[in-house]
Amino acid sequence: MSPRCGNINRVSTPGPLSAAVAQACRGIRPQLSPPGAEAVDQLLHQLAQPLRVAVVGRVSSGKSTLVNALIGRRVAATDVGECTRLPTRYGYGAPERTEVVLTDGSRRVLSPGSEDYTGANHLETYLANEVLRDMIVVDTPGLGAVGAEQDPVSRTAIAGAEAVIYVLTQLVRQDDQDALSAFTAATDGRPAGPVNAVAVLNKADTIPADSVPGSGGDQRSAARLLAQRQRLALGPRVTEVVPLIGLLAETTETGMFTAADVDALRRLAAVPPADRDTMLLAADLLLGWECDLPVPDRERLLELLDLHGIRLAVDSLVDNPQCTVGDLRRILAEASGFGELRARLTEGLWSRSDAIKAAAALDALAAIPEQQHLIWDTIELLLARPEAHQLRMMEILTLIASGGVDMPADLLDEVVRLGMNADPPTGSREQQAAYALERAGWWRSYSAFGAGPVQSRIAHVAHRAYFLRWQGLTR
Ligand SMILES: Nc1nc2c(ncn2[C@@H]2O[C@H](COP(=O)(O)OP(=O)(O)OP(=O)(O)O)[C@@H](O)[C@H]2O)c(=O)[nH]1
Ligand SMILES: [Mg+2]
After folding, report:
1. Do residues 221 and 264 share a domain?
2. Distance (Å, rounded) from C-alpha 401 to C-alpha 97?
3. What CATH number is associated with residue 85?
4. 103 and 151 together in one domain
5. Which of 244, 271, 293 is where one domain is finished?
6. pLDDT value at position 231?
7. Over the range 103-136, which residues count as b (16 or more CB within 10 Å of their CB) and which as e?
8. In terms of CB atoms within 10 Å, which end of the chain has fewer, N or C?
């Protein structure tokens, strides 16, 4: 096995699709040259590991903050300036440690407190946190950091990421779109599409509500509206953009918010309302105002909650002076939007991780530059199996996300929503079944009469998806 492979301990067992792909890989392996066999070993290794999710986005968009919230522990350094320089993989393992992986594939354990990254390609941190049994999280340097987009080092390190959480802030710019494409390079050429990408509109607390028409001046509606608009701008690459206040998620998920912080907030709540309102307009005003809360405490509150979070907590304490630390933590956690993100990640990534991993492995297998006939035949056989329908669906969703399919937008949208299970069921079971059967029939005739080869492939998969849905409802 390649010395580049990490030794993150696998705990959960591979799902049926991953197992089927692994079996196919083992069947092909003896026919390959040593480099081909090595590539297959790498693939088998990755198939046996939890889903590898890279958190990507522009500099200072809040990637490391989100990584901490996801892991539930403040492990990644965060800062207002450009901060994360080396990609860092967080996986389950004991003893807890950080290893520096050098560009030649060798590794050494980083002594605590040391920052000697000489020759490093990336870092691997092993933690005994339960959540890491089911995922490997990769924190990445900001896209747009000096040289980072073209930096082969960071590409290599996140190569093999099977899924991506894309952290956006207020503006989706053309170069953000480009950054999504740059991710394609980092995933060994596999496009990030709705099947493996979830987008987040972070720093929702800093969006001026008045800047978003239709929000009625309400912060949450502003964030939601903007997120919807970003989804449209990103096209079929993502099915949803989830608004998030990553800072509040980190503070509440990592246990950093304590009773001492609530005491500090109480002292702010005791300041006369007019003064308090002015103090909480800007960080400088908060830090410079005469009041009996020591400045370091104010700095800490800003770091933990920023102005919006402080205002929310103080308002809650004014409304209900009995609020406990637990109550406030719940209020802040709710405001962060992390619950919704977690639900999206569970639905969109974790619960599909078997199929995502299997699809990624098939792509990597197809890219091995030898015995192509054998490899393609094996893949075709595998895809022909009924249980591989999910893989076919992922294949066409990725095709649609690439933007090259000539088909009416409403039909493409229907397929994406079908494949992502994006629409909650409506009507009685019988009505749902009737609808699924009707759409199955429609797509079958479309595949037979209305389409070229690509459209026909899509229609075929859509037909089958509706048919399976109908079967599930009438069984
Ligand atoms: N107000 C606010 N600040 C946030 C939020 N998320 C992160 N921040 C702050 O933004 C700054 C940058 O956060 P990081 O997590 O270091 O950003 P990053 O994307 O990892 O940055 P690089 O590693 O330099 O690319 C830090 O000061 C965070 O505390 C948020 O939701 N709201
Ligand atoms: Mg960072």
Report:
1. no
2. 39
3. 3.40.50.300
4. yes
5. 244
6. 83
7. eeeebeebeeeeeeeeebbbbbbbbebeebeebb
8. C
Handedness of CA 263, 264, 265, 270 (dihedral sign): positive
Which residues hold their Cβ within 5 A of ligand 2, which is an ion? Answer: 63-64, 83-84
Looking at the domain assignment, is residue 393 inside a domain? Answer: yes
Same domain, 317 and 426: no
Pairing mode of beta strands 97-102, 120-127: antiparallel
CA of 149 to the centre of ligand 2 (A): 15
Note whether residue 170 is domain-resident: yes
Q: Which ligand is nearest to the CA of 78?
A: 1
Q: Of 218, 244, 270, which one is at a domain's C-terminal end?
A: 244
Q: Tell me, yes or no, whether 76 and 219 share the same domain.
A: yes
Range of the domain at 271: 256-336
**Which ligand minimizes its atom distance to the CA of 246?**
1
How many domains, the chain? Answer: 3
Residue whose C-alpha is closest to residue 243's, from 231, 253, 255? 231
The helix, strand and coil proportions of the chain, stated in percent and rounded to the nearest 5, come to: 55, 10, 35
In a domain, 439, yes or no: yes
For residue 316, is it within any domain?
Answer: yes
Distances 258 to 313, 339, 354, 406 between C-alpha atoms, Å: 13, 20, 38, 55
Which regions of the chain are under pLDDT 70?
A: 1-13, 144-160, 172-193, 450
Cβ < 6 A, ligand 1 pocket: 57, 59-65, 78-80, 82-84, 141-142, 202-203, 205-206, 245-247, 306
Ligand at shortest distance from the CA of 206:
1
Best mutation site among 138, 166, 247 for ligand 1, i.e. most ligand atoms within 8 A of its Cβ?
Answer: 247
CA angle 121, 127, 130 (to 5 degrees): 130
Residues 64 and 82: beta-carbon distance below 8 Å: no
Provide the percentage of residues in the chain whose pLDDT is more than 90: 53
**What pLDDT digit, counting tens, does each position of 75-119 carry?**
998 887 777 888 899 999 999 999 999 888 899 998 888 888 888
Nearest CA to ligand 1 atom 14: 62
